[in-house]
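Homework-ish question, so no full write-ups if that breaks the rules, but can someone show me the predicted structure for this set?
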Amino acid sequence: DAGITQSPRHKVTETGTPVTLRCHQTENHRYMYWYRQDPGHGLRLIHYSYGVKDTDKGEVSDGYSVSRSKTEDFLLTLESATSSQTSVYFCAISAGIRLSGSGNTIYFGEGSWLTVV
Amino acid sequence: GIQVEQSPPDLILQEGANSTLRCNFSDSVNNLQWFHQNPWGQLINLFYIPSGTKQNGRLSATTVATERYSLLYISSSQTTDSGVYFCAVERAGTASKLTFGTGTRLQVTL
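A: Not a homework solution, just the prediction itself:
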């Protein structure tokens, strides 16, 4: 199993409060991602990182910011949580290497369940 | 962006039956993966298969990149195969970003 740890795993927070989700990897992979999963939408990319301090937006980035100060950690912050951000959040990693047979495989963490009330 | 369509959306099988899940995508891809999400929410890699055919036990997958589809075959299904199967693709020329289909929900009954 890929060494990916998400914290917290479950959180209930109030509307308007800031929330930070943490993803920690032990694989030294270059790429890290945050996805959200909602019924009827599958998984949608929020933000991703291709190196320390190198990040970019995904398709649903509004209301979210990210930071990556170390290879192993990727933080997702909801500056002011809203009820529409109630979701399951998945972190993922990949080596991003296409030369080998499966080097570009993406592995997922176990998810963080966030409820905004 | 690239469109990913999976069919069927729902599937109910008796244990021991075989099934084929399909993934169609709208553009050239660098990467295609199949995932299984179990009832506890874990997303498990099944195959990295941007082209060709692979097999792993009772599961196999084929991607025909030139025709923009991939198939996942499940043989002799078991109740532990239940869950949601996702296809995800990375459009050619993009930087390692997967776009997911909305999944096929499989229920295997005794």
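Now go work out the reasoning yourself. Hint: Chain A is about 0% helix and 55% strand.
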